[in-house]
Amino acid sequence: MKFKQVYILLLVVVMCSFGLPKNIQKRVDAAIKDTFNIETFHFTNVRIPDADTKDLPSQFGEDNLFKITVDDMLLGYAYVAKAPSKTAQFDYLVLLDKDLIVLKSKVLIYREEYGGEIGSKRWLKQFIGKKEGDDLKYGDNIVAISGATISVRSMTNAMNNLLQSLKILHSKNIL
């Protein structure tokens, strides 16, 4: 009897340990509802075999690429990751449609005193419509922000890495 209780407790702990932290999940959910203009949806992990992630510029784990579905119909994908700023990291979200085109990018949590301007909708909207194979260049097709150079370069690199990774995953028929 005691073994069964321990097993159930372990199962509950394991089940609760997966997924995004609650503060990030709330922000992701709000962005999905706003972007896709929906109230209810399913949010499930996309599992990519380790062998297929070795050569990708972006990191893909169990808790950063998700399918967004409604009634078993694929609406798109959500990618949640961290990028470096001057002394810390910031969390960001990229929402993609079912054809892997960027619908929205959002800085979820910024942990620096300076450079938080990269979280502005005005600056982030320049990523909308970008797709696999697009090349983003700081100061060329990505606008610089005075006082946020490191964060702007970091977000630009993160988006480039994601777009390149999506191209590879799409070519392997994983996405």
Automatic annotation (TrEMBL):
Pfam families: FMN_bind. The keyword Cell membrane does not apply. Residues 85-166 form the FMN-binding domain. Keywords: Electron transport, Flavoprotein, FMN, Phosphoprotein, Transport. SMART domains: FMN_bind. The keyword Transmembrane does not apply. It comes from the Bacteria. PANTHER family: ION-TRANSLOCATING OXIDOREDUCTASE COMPLEX SUBUNIT G (PTHR36118:SF1). This is FMN-binding domain-containing protein. It comes from Snuella lapsa.
